[in-house]
């Protein structure tokens, strides 16, 4: 039986991750398969990770807000599936959005979700301000130390280890600098550095023998004009977008997905559009664990890699965080949204409870600047 290490690079944009600036990410890409066009189901941590863990979209796993719902007890998580198959299961997570309260600890023998309180002494879990929440985190150096300690303690195979890095989140104040062209990228480089140290260390001790590695990000980050496709911030017309949460453009919805497996080719890029909802069925396929595929919204991506299958997978995304923003901030008119992205060719965004629709031609307008629905309805 193969082991599995699942790595979450929280808040890391795909275009930044694939820029070639980060040594560990580049090393993983050279050792495995990179899905260049992977779409998240949600632009904030709890909802997106719930999709990764369950293989179903938010309407089915029930986490649709930053802090309101818990995981649908009828859904099975990847940890529950692997534990039932005989795996030792452990996780080290690093932010309020991965707290046990949501139900994410189901199936884990060990689930470390300890984080500090906010500067004012309050519980970060209870705030829906994504920037304020971001100041309460477990740093990458601590994450890898505790993950390593768990591996040494169990000293068993097969194992499933989930490690979660939150450093790339606001406030972009890396304690050490290992590269990057701006404060956000410095945070990505910081976690990349410590992830690299961790992987090298456990490789020397044999933990990577017969181990599949899957690295992903749950959503990206809109950085108020630091990148060409940014739309958040007052100057760009969306002051309600505090990094992520309220919009469904590619800067937050296109995410990282890299799979290293002994049965996969090395240094291969897949252009075909896929989704984070496909991660669970892909993992169970790689590990030869039978699951009730008909109960999932995702599909295994293994046939795309092995047999060059073209599934033409449309991607669904949603955000109900705007209604939380409307209750707690001055932005009272922001709307919940759903989006459909079609085979890297087009995207439709619907603002719920309004007549606002956005349609983008991604082939000719990859930065989503021109709303074709608006153009056609002048």
UniProtKB/TrEMBL annotation:
<dbReference type="InterPro" id="IPR052701">
    <property type="entry name" value="GAG_Ulvan_Degrading_Sulfatases"/>
</dbReference>
<dbReference type="InterPro" id="IPR000917">
    <property type="entry name" value="Sulfatase_N"/>
</dbReference>
<feature type="domain" description="Sulfatase N-terminal">
    <location>
        <begin position="2"/>
        <end position="289"/>
    </location>
</feature>
<dbReference type="Pfam" id="PF00884">
    <property type="entry name" value="Sulfatase"/>
</dbReference>
<protein>
    <submittedName>
        <fullName>Sulfatase</fullName>
    </submittedName>
</protein>
<dbReference type="InterPro" id="IPR017850">
    <property type="entry name" value="Alkaline_phosphatase_core_sf"/>
</dbReference>
């Amino acid at each position: 039986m193969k082991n599995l290490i699942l790595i979450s690079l929280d808040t890391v944009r795909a275009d930044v991750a694939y820029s070639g600036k980060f040594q560990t990410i580049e090393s993983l890409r050279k050792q495995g398969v990179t899905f260049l066009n992977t779409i998240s189901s949600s632009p904030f941590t709890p909802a997106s990770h719930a999709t990764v863990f369950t293989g179903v979209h938010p309407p089915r796993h029930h986490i649709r807000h930053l802090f309101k719902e818990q995981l649908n007890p009828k859904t099975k998580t990847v940890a529950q599936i692997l534990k039932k198959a005989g795996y030792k299961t452990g996780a080290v997570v690093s932010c309020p959005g991965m707290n046990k309260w949501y139900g994410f600890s189901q199936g884990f023998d060990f689930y470390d979700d300890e984080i500090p309180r906010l500067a004012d002494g309050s519980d970060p879990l209870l705030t829906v301000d994504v920037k304020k929440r971001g100041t309460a985190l477990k740093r990458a150096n601590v994450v890898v130390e505790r993950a390593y300690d768990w591996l040494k303690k169990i000293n068993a195979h097969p194992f499933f280890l989930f490690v979660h890095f939150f450093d790339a989140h606001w406030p972009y104040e890396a304690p050490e600098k290992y590269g990057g062209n701006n404060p956000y990228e410095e945070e990505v480089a910081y976690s990349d550095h410590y992830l690299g140290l961790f992987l090298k260390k456990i490789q020397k001790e044999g933990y990577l023998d017969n181990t599949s590695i899957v690295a992903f990000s749950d959503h990206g980050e809109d950085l108020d004009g630091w990148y060409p496709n940014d739309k958040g911030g007052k100057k760009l017309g969306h002051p309600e977008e505090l990094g992520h949460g309220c919009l469904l453009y590619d800067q937050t919805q296109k995410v990282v997905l890299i799979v290293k497996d002994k049965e996969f080719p090395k240094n291969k890029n897949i252009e075909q559009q896929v989704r984070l909802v496909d991660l669970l069925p892909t993992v169970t396929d790689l590990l030869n664990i039978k699951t009730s595929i008909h109960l999932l919204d995702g599909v295994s991506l293994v046939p795309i890699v092995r047999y060059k299958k073209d599934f033409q997978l449309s991607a669904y995304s949603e955000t109900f965080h705007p209604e939380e923003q409307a209750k707690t901030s001055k932005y009272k008119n922001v709307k919940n949204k759903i989006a459909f992205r079609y085979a890297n060719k087009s995207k439709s965004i619907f603002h719920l409870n309004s007549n606002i629709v956005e349609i983008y031609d991604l082939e000719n307008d990859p930065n989503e600047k021109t709303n074709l629905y608006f153009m056609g309805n002048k």
